[in-house]
Amino acid sequence: MPELTRRRALGAAAGAAAALAVAGTAAAAAAARKEHTAADPASFDEVYKGRRIQGTPSHGGGHHGGHGGGHGGGYSVHIDGEELHVMRNADGTWISVVNHYEPFATPRAVARAAVAELQGADLVPLVTV
User: Fold this and answer.
1) What are the DSSP calls for 57-82, one per residue?
2) Long-range contacts from 74-80, C-beta under 8 angstroms, 24+ separation
3) CATH superfamily entry for domain 44-118
4) Secretion signal: which residues (predicted)?
5) pLDDT greater than 70 at residue 61
6) Which residues pair with 51 in a beta bridge?
7) What residue spans define the domains of the chain?
8) pLDDT of residue 108
């Protein structure tokens, strides 16, 4: 039986740490998918941190090629009456132009995160050419 060396011990520890990191990422992704239902998210209309956020399914596909969803159409989100462009990812999570690299389980969660990120600033309309 080979002798346990410092190199082998460190290699085993690094392998175990990598395995735990991968397992944690997979668990987080599974939790986000579990929160997502196959049906379109319900509409919402609330005041969050002093800002009015509204969301509703929009089955017309919108003017951005249906960015709101691959499951039954799009979803329209507004902050104080201004549209927050949102998109549903393939795994069922949602992102917005404000939090493009941070997925959320629901459009309501995306809207709340955008309000927090804006820190009181107005949502500027997205202009497309």
Assistant:
1) EETT-TTTTSTT-SSSSEEEEEETTE
2) 75/40, 75/41, 75/107, 77/53, 77/107, 77/110, 77/111, 78/52, 78/53, 78/54, 79/51, 79/52, 79/53, 79/111, 79/114, 79/115, 79/118, 79/123, 80/51, 80/52, 80/122, 80/123
3) protein ne1242 domain like (3.30.1880.10)
4) 1-28
5) no
6) 48
7) 1-35, 44-118
8) 97
